[in-house]
Design a protein that fits this description.
Helix content: 25-40%
Shape: globular
Radius of gyration: 28 Å
Oligomer: single chain
Number of strands: 13
Enzyme class: transferase
Subcellular location: Golgi apparatus, Golgi stack membrane
InterPro entries: XG_FTase (IPR004938)
GO molecular function: galactoside 2-alpha-L-fucosyltransferase activity
Membrane topology: Single-pass type II membrane protein
């Protein structure tokens, strides 16, 4: 179906007809009496009121096309006959953002009202493209966020307190009783990993009373607006520590290595500690460092004024397993599976440039459909899956879970009318490759659906390979994360942090396309429904602490279970 043509307004009448009407009006003009004009006006007014009563709220106009022409399943190839023109019924369950002004732009107090709206268009508008959150916000978390914002403003970059803290760091001294303490985040791996680790680091900052500063490399510049009012979360240039080449598991400044080498002990006083500590919270042999998440270690870590942290993992679940933080976290997140859902929507707001891509694409192709279904496909180099096998698995999932309507007989285009007749479903495909779009679009181009529904297929981009160090690539990736998060249903590849972020924003439990076993090329099970909207911690710590034995916390903590896609991973959930 040609979606653009189906939505196009009627072409204006040609100039010749206008001239004829004007000429006819001129002939009648002198013969019409004033009473006849008045009576005609009143009759017309009554007819208009009868015809248009109760329809005064117009649909927002569709903006101009995106800067790059997307792949759209509605486009008609020249080699095939076009679909007949059809009337597209406006969405009944999802309207364009301009029609929902009553929706709470502050998300129940999650967002601060202290920003000028013009400073970041997405901050107060991006949530209007989603259904309301299914997770109520804890008043205690709101209070905690406002308190943190004041603390960050008092101690953040540009303040006297920050300059004093940096001077002490340069002098090699750890402040004995510093008013301001800091955790400095350094990036690792792709955009999805980075967003998950920033959220985890921020949660740790809330719990440990630290200001979070973010080292922003060139490939990450211009992606996100500032999340805290009246200050900045960006680590200023010239920071004396944190050479990326030195931040690794073997760094002598790492907490684990300093303990192992006797540089520090759990009873070392603050004044005798080094000027900073490095936390390497990166999976090593599919495990995080155990020491970091034990009470004794947290008490020692709190004595450091400066902490440098590098991670590739969503380590928030491990904080829930640290005894000293359990009660505080329960007050902040009564519904534990909403941790990233709330923190992600609080922290991450695309800049106007990226938001422009999201808004134009959404309003041009997704705003007026009845349902949006997102498919996110990621192929990992350590376990490559052939295209044919992955496509077969995706279609099995679609069929078994009834994510899309069944196809009818191509030779019988006129299907029986049902309650779904004329409804439009949009499929959004997020993948580095175009093959999945081509195949799924072909299915619904060549055959009608049994229900009479229209299925339009879209893919914003296909980059062919992931470019961690490309700013333009990351802008597109962020835009597609947001577009995917506006879908009503999501099916995603196992292990994908890109997918975790998208469904976490949406608050939607996804269908996860499982990886084949290591000795197989095809997964026996196509997909399973996630028990939670929380991301998975791929590499949990053993958490035996001083007991020196491995503890399966999924067996002893009622709010933690193993992930559907990573058998040894952990995720938070609510029973």
């Amino acid at each position: 179906m040609d979606m653009k043509r189906a939505r196009s307004p009627r072409a204006p009448a040609d100039g010749g007809d206008d001239d004829k009407r004007r000429a006819a009006s001129a002939k009648w003009g002198g013969a019409v009496r004033p009473k006849m004009v008045l009576v005609g006006f009143l009759i017309t007014l009554a007819l208009l009121a009868f015809t248009f009563g109760g329809r005064s709220a117009p649909l927002p106009s569709t903006p101009s096309s995106p800067t790059s022409v997307p792949k759209a399943g509605g486009a008609t190839p020249k080699s095939k006959p076009p679909f007949p023109r059809q009337t597209v019924i406006p969405s009944k369950n999802v309207t364009a953002p301009a029609t929902t002004p009553s929706q709470d732009k502050l998300l129940g107090g999650l967002l601060s009202a202290a920003f000028e709206e013009s400073s970041c268009q997405s901050r107060y508008k991006s949530s209007l493209y989603r259904k309301p959150s299914p997770f109520p916000l804890s008043p205690y978390l709101v209070k905690k966020l406002r308190k943190y914002e004041a603390y960050h403003k008092k101690c953040g970059p540009g303040t006297h307190r920050y300059r004093t803290a940096v001077e002490q760091l340069q002098a090699g001294r750890n402040a004995d009783s510093s008013e301001c303490k800091y955790v400095v985040w350094f990036p690792c791996n792709g955009l999805g990993n980075r967003m998950l680790t920033i959220a985890s680091t921020f949660l740790y900052a809330l719990l440990s009373g630290r200001v979070m500063l973010v080292n922003v490399p060139r490939e990450q510049e211009g992606l996100f607006c500032e999340p805290f009012p009246g200050t900045s979360w960006v680590l200023p240039g010239g920071f004396p520590e944190g050479n990326p080449m030195k931040l690794n598991v073997g760094a002598p400044e790492s907490y684990v290595n300093m303990l192992k080498n006797g540089v520090i002990r759990h009873d070392t006083p603050a004044a005798s500690l080094p000027a900073h500590v490095y936390l390497h919270v990166e999976q090593t042999r599919l495990r995080l460092s155990d020491n970091i998440f034990c009470d004794d270690d947290q008490r020692l870590l709190r004595k450091f004024s400066w902490m440098i942290l590098k991670s590739d993992s969503y380590f928030a679940p491990a904080l829930f397993l640290t005894p000293m933080y359990e009660k505080e976290l329960a007050r902040m997140f009564p519904q534990r599976e909403a941790v990233f859902h709330h923190l992600g929507r609080y922290l991450f707001h695309p800049t106007d440039r990226v938001w422009g891509i999201v808004r134009r694409y959404y309003e041009a192709y997704l705003a007026r459909v009845d349902e949006k279904i997102g498919f996110q496909i990621r192929i990992f180099p350590e376990k490559p899956v052939k295209f044919e096998n992955m496509y077969d698995q995706l279609t099995r999932c679609i069929r078994e879970q009834r994510l899309l309507p069944e196809l009818g007989d191509p030779a019988s285009p006129a299907m029986n009318a049902t309650g779904h007749d004329g409804k439009v479903k949009a499929v959004l495909i997020a993948s580095l490759y175009s093959g999945y779009y081509d195949k799924i679009r072909g299915l619904y181009y060549e055959s009608p659906t049994k229900t009479g529904e229209i299925v339009a297929v879209y893919q914003p981009s296909h980059e062919e390979k992931q470019e961690y160090a490309s700013n333009e690539h990351n802008q597109k990736a962020l835009a597609e994360i947001y577009l995917l998060s506006y879908c009503d249903k999501i099916a995603m590849s196992a292990w994908s942090t890109f997918g975790y972020v998208a469904y976490g924003f949406a608050g939607v439990k996804p269908w996860i396309l499982l990886r084949p076993d290591w000795n197989k090329e095809v997964s026996d099970v196509a997909c399973v429904r996630s028990t939670s909207v929380e991301p998975c911690l791929h590499s949990p710590p053993i958490l035996g602490c001083r007991a020196k034995k491995e503890v399966d916390v999924a067996r002893v903590k009622p709010y933690v279970r193993h992930c559907e896609d990573v058998g040894f991973g952990l995720k938070l959930f609510d029973s």
